[in-house]
Task: structure prediction
Amino acid sequence: MQITLTELATKIGAELEASDLVIIIGIAPLNKANQQQISFFSSSKYRNELSKTQAAAVILTEKDRKFCKVAKLVMSNPYLGYAKAAALFNPTIPKPPGIHPSAYVSPDAMLDDTVYVGPQVVIEAGAKLGKEVEIGPGCVIEANVEIGANCQLKANITLCSGTKIGQRTIIHPGAVIGADGFGNANNDGKWFKVPQLGGVLIGDDVEIGANTTIDKGALEDTSIANGARLDNLIQIAHNVQIGEYTAIAGCVGIAGSTKIGKNCLIGGGVGISGHLEIVDNVCVTGGSIVLRSIRKPGVYSSGTPIENNQHWHRNYLRFKQLNEMAQSLKKLEKNI
Result:
């Protein structure tokens, strides 16, 4: 693909400071871009690379314009500009409609004529697939699953019965949606399995990362609202509710029946206990453990940052003594 800087600026919503005759053929990092490529700048730690870049133009903010010696594409959100430009140079190529000969599709499944079904796919009775849905190789779509228009399932994904997905949702390889939640009743030391009777509801424009698992609800449905973003290797337990446009990074575990609001950011490796509520606009930083509800918007953290092992052991021993120290402090306060 080739495009002039003027055309590119219009498509990504940037103000151009350059000649419209420059032809762009791609996008690259600041330190590797050439005179036919653009780059972007959104972090001050790369300012040295910005001053030396050989890119044809750089997407940046107004306040960073003075540090750039090449043409500028100025906008308030350079990272968004980069995302739009990258999409232009790497367009998605839709799969042609049709069913691969090695796939099994139940005669009682309902597929729009524009659906693509890849090799070794299994689609069971009662499944409904909307317009221009793409099902990658090795996927299993169980009975009565519903998938809205323009969804993409990459490869080796399992959608269990009771799963319903909105439009334009992307699911990456290895994800399992709608498996039984972890429900067990104890009977004199032995476990009795609790049937999981709910499903999973996934909204429009959701993206779900590789090997992420979302369990079906025990009685009601587990739900992921419109626009949510789930990274790889996330575990979402039964009856969890995740609000619109919330983004969750990799290796997060969310226990059952927890409700997370809109526009939240959950960092990597966070553990969230069950039956909690997290309101809208909360950021939980990476590695934190959430053991109680969060009722006010803001940034929350927990855990101990890494340090020298000897220092860590010393602090750990002191941590074990905190209660005794607190009691001693109270006694001292009474005596003053």
Remarks:
- The first helix runs from residue 5 to 12.
- The radius of gyration is 25 Å.
